[in-house]
Amino acid sequence: MNRYTEFVTPVALTIAGSDPSGGAGIQADLKTFHRMEAYGEAVITLITVQNTVSVDRVEILAADLVRQQVDSVVRDIPPKAAKTGALGSAEIVQTIAEAAQNWTFPLVVDPVMFSSKGSPLLDRAGHEAMVELLIPRATLLTPNLAEASGLAGFSVTDVASMRRAAETIAARGPKNVLVKGGHLLGEAVDILFADGHMHEFAAQRIPSTQTHGTGCTYSAAITAELAKGTALPDAVARAKTFITRAIQWAPGLGHGTGPLNHF
Ligand code: PXL
């Protein structure tokens, strides 16, 4: 084995669901890792049957099968950063939270509850397990406005409430919180609460219906940057640039909500 390569290669791990259309989930994460020049590892939690038009089926894997995948790759090729996406069940959330107790690398948790078309990818018990067990272990939590509203306990609708939500959610354990304002009107503003400081990232809004997998791609880009050793605010800034361009240059594929341009 080439120890030098092992030392310098940024390795990023995603633990998420499969989207066979290639726009979201594991597939989006791996494409993003690759484009951001990180070596990607991928543990699958659930399999969706979906395309850009509809999600037709969701099959959640057994928690012990997910855990075995995680343990197998982490002990052989330890990542320098990891992210979670759709986790499917409370049992999977619990086993990932247990595994994460021993991790020294940063963990980005994207609190995915629904697919972009509204299909449930985590039930209520799973959400409770995430809040109680996994979120407190997160280096970074990346809720969108709806997820931030649920976690903060008040409605998050503008930049002022995003700031309040980031601080409120951070009090529940995640070290850092990025509230994503992609669904705001006007500029696309995201708020990062990190180490007691507020950071604001603004980008021009790109009117587009080709936004399938935006959340997955954004958190994957941040994870790749963290794997490369980039400091969190810079990692978010670079990921924001990447996601903005990926929306801007979407290839216009499919008959529904099309994917981004991961190149
Ligand atoms: O964007 C959330 C998400 C996560 N994981 C999978 C998905 C989606 C959205 O469609 O399909 C597998």
Commentary on this structure:
By secondary structure, this protein is of the alpha/beta class. The longest helix is centred in the last third of the chain and has 17 residues. About 40% of the residues lie in helices and about 20% in strands. Helix 3 packs parallel to helix 4, helix 4 packs parallel to helix 5 and helix 8 packs antiparallel against helix 9. The mean pLDDT is about 95. It binds 3-hydroxy-5-(hydroxymethyl)-2-methylisonicotinaldehyde. 3-hydroxy-5-(hydroxymethyl)-2-methylisonicotinaldehyde (PXL) binds next to strand 1, strand 2 and helix 8.
Summarize this structure briefly.
Helices cover 40% and strands 21% of the residues. It has 263 residues and is an alpha/beta fold. Strands 3-2-1-4-5-6-7-8-9 form a nine-stranded mixed sheet.
